Amino acid sequence: xxxxxEMRMKVTHKASTDADFRARLVSDPKAAIGAELGVSLPAGxxxxxxxxxxETAHLVLPPPSxxxxxxxxxxAGGFFGSSMGQANSLLxx
Length: 93
Description:
Elements (H helix, E strand, L loop, with lengths): L3 H14 L1 H9 L1 H9 L31 H8 L7 H8 L2
Helix pairs in contact: 1-2, 2-3
């Protein structure tokens, strides 16, 4: 079974190589995705397609976290309490 990210990549790749699929994806995203992946998307799900251009870039944010700050700190095991320098070196940024 493909992961959501693999499915997104498959749809994006097809849209970049198949003009007819791209047009269907822009006009009716749920139908185009469903047909391409062989899945039925939930009725309550909205899919929006945004085409980038040389003048416009899109940044897609994940849904807001449902965890409180204290929950996040507990899950992170104190990572967020470390200095930014330590965090950057740990992440090789």
